Amino acid sequence: MQLLDLIETTVVGLGYELVEFETSPRARLLRVFIDRPESAQTEKSGISVEDCAAVSSQLSRVFMVENVDYDRLEVSSPGLDRALVKPADYRRFAGQEVQLKLRVPMGNQRNFSGVLDGLRLEGGVEMVCLRVNETLQQFALENIDRARLVPKF
User: Could you give the domains of the chain?
Assistant: First the structure.
């Protein structure tokens, strides 16, 4: 089983959602970002230190059994500027302000900010819809290098 699959299976089995997984060179540092699934979201829900500790403890045990070699494991919430990684994230956070960075520039622009209008399927291609200054822009999901929520304070 690959490391990502192992982590995702463990995190989902504990009732959380795997948002992102990062490794350092040679996989010495494993960084795991978890959230509550959309179905478990409430107004005051979030990831607590106890949630991170529970996932960290379980992953440590799983890594020991599976002989995963690493030096340090970090488990964290995705934060207020949560990354949008999966297609479901673009549906879930529709209506919120986001920042996008494209892999290939559109015209001469690579960075965009606006209100997420969801995800649409057009001609077999998933398109992220973003409302920028009252104009609806569409970007192929595969062309998005990085997308993050913009926190409101």
Answer: 3-76 (3.30.300), 87-149 (2.30.30.30)
